[in-house]
Amino acid sequence: MKYGFLCLLALFIVSCGHERLLQLPEISHSEITELSDISAAYLFYDELEKDSVELNRKNLISTTNWLVNVDKRLTLKQVIPHIKYLQEKKQNAGHKNPNARNYFTCHDTFRNTLGFIDFTDIIYKEQPDSNDPDGQDSEKSSYIIIHYVSQDRILIRLLNDDPNALRSSHTALIKDLGSISSKLNKECVFILNLNENLTFQKYIEIKSLFNSNEFKNGSLSPVEYISN
Questions:
Q1: Phi and psi (nearest 5°) for 148?
Q2: How far apart are CA 6 and CA 26, in angstroms?
Q3: DSSP 2
Q4: Residues 60, 191: Cα–Cα separation, whole Å
Q5: Which residues have a Cβ under 8 Å from the Cβ of 9 and sit 6 or more positions away?
Q6: Which H/E stretch holds residue 174?
Q7: How far from chain centre, in Å, is Cα 149?
Q8: 25: exposed, middle or buried (C-beta count within 10 Å: 0-12, 13-18, 19+)?
């Protein structure tokens, strides 16, 4: 049996048991649709206290693939501290499985089933500076910062203190990054610098955008910055 149907049932039971509703983020297409050997955690949104967030992690098993179900209405400011906590918890677990991964759960609207986005290797940090954010030895001119403020306000600039920024939007972002890569005549590493007030729904849309077949002009840095 596909895991998608089981997980939908599990979310229903957890939501009813705690009298909570968890709305999964939606994406139009996901590369991963089936998983096995899993355990789950939940981040709930509180409609009465919108600044609060509840983490339910009591069912997590360190040697399994972790499915983190995050309510799409939460902001990155609310979510990311809990995600970092879960990453550290798994890394420091006494019993480990080197093949176990961490995934965000989504609703794949095209297939009308569940989809999963792997975030195992993502490193979340605060505001970037002019130094190499990845800590890697490579030419800074190949690093491009994408400062995502909102869907209609995205600033793109070279990492090496380039004062000039190209303004873009969510719909034009991949095309604009392709144009920049062509002008530089080299493969680029793109670094996400995301506004902390973005919803988790928007975050998943951004991640899905870079996982799509349209993104062919470079690679996405495993380091992601969450700033105000």
A1: -95, 100
A2: 18
A3: -
A4: 30
A5: none
A6: helix 173-184
A7: 15
A8: buried
Q: Which two tokens stand for residue 143?
A: 């690093």
| Predicted TM-score of the model (pTM) | 0.87
What value does the CA radius of gyration of the chain take, rounded to a whole number of Å?
A: 18
**Residue 88: exposed, middle, or buried by beta-carbon count in 10 A (0-12, 13-18, 19+)?**
exposed
For the CA atoms of 48, 195, 43, 108, what is the dihedral angle to 10 degrees? 110
Q: Phi, psi at residue 121, to the nearest 5°? A: -95, 5
pLDDT in tens, 34-64: 999 999 999 999 888 888 899 999 999 999 9
Q: Which residues of 145-162 are buried (b: 16+ CB within 10 A; e: fewer)?
A: bbbbeeeeebebbbbeee
144, β-bridge pairs = 158, 190
Instruction: Write out the two tokens for 190.
Output: 């793109």
pLDDT (tens digit, 9 = 90+) per residue, 2-40? 454 444 543 553 454 556 789 999 999 889 999 999 999
* pLDDT tens column, 97-107: 999 999 999 99
Over the chain, what is the mean pLDDT? 86
Residue with tokens 């940090």: 125
The whole-angstrom separation of Cα 151 and Cα 154 is 7
Of 36, 94, 92, whose CA–CA distance to 64 is shortest?
36
Query: Are 69 and 39 contacting, i.e. CB atoms less than 8 angstroms apart?
Result: no
Please report, as a single letter, which amino acid is at residue 99: N
